[in-house]
Automatic annotation (TrEMBL):
<protein>
    <submittedName>
        <fullName>Monoheme cytochrome c</fullName>
    </submittedName>
</protein>
<dbReference type="GO" id="GO:0020037">
    <property type="term" value="F:heme binding"/>
</dbReference>
<dbReference type="GO" id="GO:0009055">
    <property type="term" value="F:electron transfer activity"/>
</dbReference>
<feature type="signal peptide">
    <location>
        <begin position="1"/>
        <end position="27"/>
    </location>
</feature>
<dbReference type="InterPro" id="IPR036909">
    <property type="entry name" value="Cyt_c-like_dom_sf"/>
</dbReference>
<keyword id="KW-0732">Signal</keyword>
């Protein structure tokens, strides 16, 4: 229970301090959970970390075809909101480039 002692105010204060301390130059490394920079970084961060750790993504190495199936599975069976086609394409390219390979 130690973590919850300071509650939401503590978390907000910590976030505020962090925002001041880190500044824009560092924001990228810190803000996206270790995802490498690139087009799609932010999109993957916001689309994928709501339900599980990004570590699950970052430890993956799948072919494009398998990533496609995983995204379908995330939507069909895990309750992920489907991404519009253009966003999905960006996410796919990012995942294949950093955590996978072309078929
Ligand atoms: C609505 C919830 C939800 C969202 C959003 C979501 N996932 Fe998942 N994901 C799950 C669940 C549930 C599992 C399986 C349970 C677990 O291992 O935590 C899972 C498992 C996975 C796995 C492991 C699959 C395997 O068989 O090894 C990968 C990879 C993955 N997700 C990638 C992603 C990516 C990439 C995104 C963003 C595009 C994403 N997830 C977004 C719910 C979600």
């Amino acid at each position: 229970m130690k973590k919850t002692r300071y509650g939401i105010l503590g978390a907000a204060a910590a976030a505020l301090i962090f925002a001041f301390a880190s500044g824009p130059a560092m924001a990228q490394d810190e803000d996206f959970g270790g995802l490498p920079p690139g087009e799609g970084q932010e999109l993957v961060f916001y689309s994928c970390q709501g339900c599980h750790s990004l570590a699950i993504v970052e430890s993956s190495n799948f072919s494009r075809r398998v990533w496609d199936e995983i995204l379908d599975w995330m939507v069909d069976s895990q309750g992920m909101a489907p991404l519009p086609d253009d966003m999905r394409a960006t996410v796919m390219d990012y995942l294949v480039e950093h955590y996978g390979y072309e078929d």
